[in-house]
Specification:
mainly alpha, about 0% strand
Length: about 180
């Protein structure tokens, strides 16, 4: 039953976001009672953590493989961005909003650990690579934070893809790394 709960919750959270998904809806669609749902998960936050953990662990593994297989830092960054753009199951901005505005401090800390391990770490690693070959204005940590903020505009759900113009992710990476002024 736990797997069924997580599979359905994943689908609902990815489509509707955290706020619009209720445990009542999850229980109803699974044809179980809310107390039966709470037998497996203490609350909605715990379900959300499990959903994020499930897909984030796979993302972290794949991002690691992309970095290890591409020695050119800029190309590795492009490859990771393309991977996230094509496979990320949730609107990145909506996920970040939910994390920052809808969850309590304890849940946020748990999700932050997942986020650090499976997302942020790999971007920081790539910008650390650049730090060895270039004189950077900011720390790899600061750069990663800004980069992920900008990247979130490119990681949208299926329904939003048709409403946003196709902007090549390569252009975003090149603008971020090299700016817009020819030297």
């Amino acid at each position: 039953m736990k797997k069924k709960i997580i599979d359905l919750a994943t689908k609902l959270f990815m489509k509707q976001g955290y706020l619009a998904t209720s445990t009542r809806q999850i229980a109803k669609e699974l044809n179980i009672t809310q107390p039966a749902l709470y037998h497996h998960y203490k609350n909605k936050e715990q379900i959300y953590i499990e959903v994020l953990k499930n897909f984030s662990d796979e993302i972290g593994i794949n991002m690691h493989q992309i970095i290890e297989s591409e020695p050119d830092t800029e190309q590795a960054l492009i490859n990771i961005c393309k991977y996230l753009q094509q496979t990320h199951p949730m609107n990145f901005s909506m996920m970040m909003h939910d994390m920052n505005h809808e969850l309590d401090e304890t849940t946020l800390r748990e999700i932050f650990v997942i986020w650090q391990k499976n997302y942020f770490y790999y971007f920081e690693q790539l910008f650390e690579r650049l730090n060895h070959t270039h004189d950077l204005f900011f720390s790899p940590k600061q750069i990663s934070s800004h980069f992920l903020r900008g990247l979130s505009a490119y990681i949208v759900g299926e329904s939003e893809k048709s409403m946003t113009p196709e902007l090549p992710i390569e252009e975003f990476v090149k603008i971020f790394l090299h700016g817009v002024i020819k030297k």
